[in-house]
Specification:
Blueprint: H1 2-6, H2 11-27, E1 40-41, H3 42-45, H4 51-54, E2 58-59, H5 67-71, H6 73-83, H7 86-89, H8 94-118
Helix pairs in contact: 2-6, 2-8
């Protein structure tokens, strides 16, 4: 399998990789000018000491009504970020985050392709 041997991410996972790098920067307070007020951490939106606020979750105040809404950058980036394992989200540096994120996405990609290959 090419993705396992040379560790390439396919377009779907590469898109997630780039999106999650933006979310990591936002979560760490690195300014990304075009998203300055677009994403808000739960710990900033409310001051209640909940586990989701403490774990770096983003708050999504958007309830999609159509498939277009579920596919929007805003909704998709928040849900993927919040569903990502803590060991990936909690990295201290962008370098370590990218390394762990790529490993995580490669594993997901291999599982996705393995399931697709077994159905043929």
């Amino acid at each position: 399998m090419i993705c396992k041997e040379i560790k390439w991410l396919f377009p779907k996972e590469l898109h997630v990789f780039n999106t999650m790098c933006i979310m990591f920067k936002l979560q760490k307070g690195v300014p990304v000018s075009c998203f300055k007020d677009y994403f808000v951490l739960r710990s900033i939106r409310h001051k209640y000491p909940t586990s989701s606020a403490a774990n770096g979750y983003f708050d999504c105040n958007f309830n999609p009504k159509t498939s277009y809404g579920y596919a929007s950058f805003y909704y998709k980036s928040i849900t993927v970020w919040n569903d990502m394992p803590m060991e990936v989200r909690d990295c201290a540096t962008l370098y370590m985050f990218k390394k762990k994120l790529k490993e995580y996405l490669l594993n997901q990609q291999i599982c996705r392709l393995g399931i697709a290959n077994n159905t043929n």
